[in-house]
Amino acid sequence: LPGTAKSEIDWCWILTNRNKKSVALDLGDPAGHEAMIRLVKTVDVFLTNYQRPLLEKFHLSWEDLAAVNDRLIYAHLTGYGDAGEDADDPAFDALAYWARSGLMMTVTGTDGSPGAPRPGMGDHPTSMSMFGAIMLGLYQRERTGRGSRVTTSLLASGAWANACDIQAKFCNATFPVRGEGKHPPNPLTAAYLSRDAKLFLLVQIDPDNEFPRLCQAFGQPELAAGELFATNAARAENAAALYAILQSQFETRDLAQWRLIFKRNDIKWAPLPKLDDVVQDPQMRAAEAFIDMEYPGIGRLETVNSPVFVSGVQKRKPTAAPAVGEHTREVLHELG
Description:
With 336 residues, the chain is of the alpha/beta class. It is 40% helix and 12% strand.
């Protein structure tokens, strides 16, 4: 797709389909449909993102499958939910999660242009909502012995991601006007540039306590006590001057030096890395966000780990994503 990363390796397929077997069935063929039903009889969870007309066409609705496996957790992931005139419309994460939820228009350039979607930015968070729903279904089954239908949608997950701004709107809150300016409206939650031209984000959400520590780190404690910056109201009124002072301080040292100073003074911040830096970040590996795998024809390859961990349980090591239909004969043979 235009705007996405280009590679000889299908990075999206590697990431999304690892640790799976692939069975390809023609559901319009009676034998293919029978194979699907045999599979459903043996499983704990059936997960689908087919729209309702397709599920009805292929007799794969909750009612159809619950009749052959009453312990089944039927997980239906939709674009726009179960009801409403748009419920059966096709959807992608860019459309339902990023655009329709309002998120896209909250991340805009200074000219008001909306932030472009990135691959998987809605699919992956929504998959975690789906995971939670499936686990609740399995937990309920442990208590009742019966399966259930569980759902989520890209739209609902997008609304949850945008929930703080949406709730503020429900409460008739007043939002600051976004527009081009020479300084951020809140210099204590803003990006700055170090001497070695590295960007980082400063975030002080308790400035009455945190701003004096920042000034102390600069060696200018008097700055926090002066009438220009002593209160939130004063800092807002003199935001341009404060931003200029902070930037003039930050450009006196390299980011590596600021890292030590920030840690010593309990200053909340984060680097703003490019992807070249992200993949080299040692904290990512310490947090087990990345994991090694062996991939045919490639050898050792790092991939992004799933973000769920259970103490005392070793995760299954990632295995290569299959070709489409690679395991059809194997699985159908096991089903007889």
